[in-house]
Amino acid sequence: MKIKDIFETMEYGPAPESADVAIDYLKSHKNKFQLFINGEWKAPSSKENFDSINPSTREKLAEISEANEKDVNLAVKAAKDALPEWVNIGAHQRARYLYAIARQIQKHSRLFAVLESMDNGKPIRETRDIDIPLVARHFYHHAGWAQLRDTELKEYKEIGVIGQIIPWNFPLLMLAWKIAPALAMGNTLVLKPAEFTSLTALLFADICKQIGLPNGVVNIITGHGKTGATLVDHKDVNKIAFTGSTEVGKIIRRATAGTGKKLSLELGGKSPFIVFEDADLDSVVEGVVDAIWFNQGQVCCAGSRLLVEESIAEKLYKKIRKRMESLRVGNSLDKSIDIGAIVAPVQLKTIEELVQQGVDEGSKLWQPSWACPQDGYFYPPTMFTDVSPSSTIAQVEIFGPVLVAMSFRTHKEAVKLANNTRYGLASSIWTENINLALDIAPQIKAGVAWINCTNVFDAAAGFGGYRESGFGREGGKEGLYEYMKPRIHEKFSDKPVVKKPKDLKAPSTNGQHVTGIDRTTKMYIGGKQVRPDGGYSTVIKSANGEYIGEVSTGNRKDIRNAVEAAHANSTWGSMTGHARAQVLYYIAENLAIRKEEFANRIVQMTNCSKTEALKEVDESIERIYTYAALADKYDGLVHHTVKQNVTLAMPESLGVMAIVCPNESPLLGFISTVIPAMTMGNNVIAIPSESAPLSATDFYQILETSDVPAGTVNIVTGKKDELAQVLAKHDDVDAIWYFGDKAGLKDIEYLSADNMKRTWGNNGKYRDWMDKEQGEGEEFLRHASQIKNIWIPYGA
Ligand code: NDP
User: Fold this and answer.
1) Where is the Aldehyde dehydrogenase domain (predicted)?
2) Are 297 and 305 in contact (CB under 8 A)?
3) What is the pLDDT of residues 334-353, one digit of tens each?
4) 119, 172, 198, 245, best to mutate for ligand 1 pocket (most atoms within 8 Å of CB)
């Protein structure tokens, strides 16, 4: 092409970035990498290697070691041995190491960027301007948190050895999101990068060596899924942090059930990109480019579903098609391309198959007129219109440069369509009307809402999902809790903490039903006292075996009714914190009026002294006051993100929560678990103490007289574990707390994997509910809510 022609067409010429420094780096390892264990490079015990390929050129870059079980054991042992010293050096020294890592990343930023682009296929413009600067920012930000650890977070301590498994789409960035907070909070770790993209993690290992990070604090082992699974199963790993597919996330949830390992999962998404008719359409078009063609669409939070108000749909599609025609696909080291290569042939095949399925299911395909280069794994930007909301391409995470577009007529329909997937990672809302945007953002079930922007990230803001997009947050203060545990947990008991019964007399009635006493309590569902579906009841006896009465034996159908009733109630969740507080105070007031009666009931069930029973009622009243007080005070933050943004971190309710109450402290155990869940605006299905349920069934009279909307609290009595398992399997339950034994919790964690419910329990330990430090506080509210980060850019 002549210069004259270039002036005519204004085509970009190639602007290749040199690969020399990266090639030299690979040569320094003889293009063959070992495992990084205990501060040393170590040959894999398997003696096996696999190739790392440049997806833009199909050329082999290096050989990577396959770590087997023996290597995983060595790495975990190194991390475990390094832990005491790493904890002992203290917050300030850890901060210095993190700061040194950040400096080194900045110093070698171009090498990191080039290597990442070659290994992954992503454009150098993205690695240079987005990935690597964000990595450095993450380590700087967390160097700060490391420094503040002993002052700002002194009620918490490190978890121990962390196993971290990351995907191939943002190799170094995901490493930073995992490693920075883990180290800052005083943990040591073993990290496994994805098989396709291990190189920058290995360069990072060299950085750890350079700065003199104590041996064993960071261990990097490469390998396939099996290596990851071995790490997950290792008994000395105290927490698993995983980013990847929802399918593998579920496998890990099940594998860790009952082990007491803490877990955070950042999984797939099918995020909505919602455009209202008053949006600035030219900005929207650039937003779409960033949403779905950034990183070839291989982004968990990609705005892959374009939802457009019908009145402007055709106009917007036309503009997008025009822009697609001008996008450039090519070698990742060319600075003038927009879209690089797909990471590997297997991913390319998945994309091609799903696109074909879209065509087969009747959606309209559009791709630009030009063809992709043939020397790498390339795929053109693609848009589907005429897409039905239930079609495969509208539901499945394609993880490629494929946009599916649908239209809506009303705001309500937009929200419904946006929430119409099993995922809930991110959303992007485009309108010039800030009132509309802030009305829509809380209605979308997703951990992030970007208003008039998309795919913006920062170390100061949390990122993570709702629903099957996983749980836990990375970044922000909210992300730190994933790497710490409350010190108070060390006080938990190995056995249930129960009041000592007063001298137990033999039951006067031989434990048999006494004629004349006929008290069978009903259940409480949807604000009504209801009989059990099965028509059975269970006898309740006191601690000395005396017959007290009977409770309804709930079954699967009763649970289904309770879940339905909880869903039908939208009143409680939409009330303000102040309004909820008023109801909670009212509950406390009504309980205070009936203090004697509730104390007598506790005496009757547990045979404790009246004084102790009165203390339990008093403590219950006080606890309700605490949560009423917190209802309008446990609020969010405005994060200091680096761009011109107001980033609101808002705690939102989880939705419908199942609470399996402790058997001990019949009233206080019920109050201590149900009230914090209510405080955050959840609707609750409570399974009260199995042995002493009557305080809870008496309590519905209090709920009835305290202005609690129907369906806010539903009480189903019966066999605790049977009912808990039905709840754990129920797809419309968003979270489940289980306060019982270890075996019960294991079942709950295992069964909850199907829809990725949040689970919480005491891992086979027991709280003393009478102790305020153990029985109440922000830990409860944190587990009853999830943080949504809403990004609102500013600047005229
Ligand atoms: P995976 O979820 O399989 O991989 C993520 C990480 O987990 C990798 O390091 C992988 O190792 C490892 N892994 C795989 N199986 C196990 C296991 N049983 N136990 C522990 N670790 C395991 O994602 P893929 O890379 O296979 O991609 C498949 C699909 O997942 C994509 O098409 C995309 O839809 C989705 N995905 C979503 C991501 C997200 O961020 N939401 C990120 C990546 C993929 P290895 O790579 O060596 O097999």
Assistant:
1) 41-486, 537-759
2) no
3) 999 999 999 999 999 999 99
4) 245
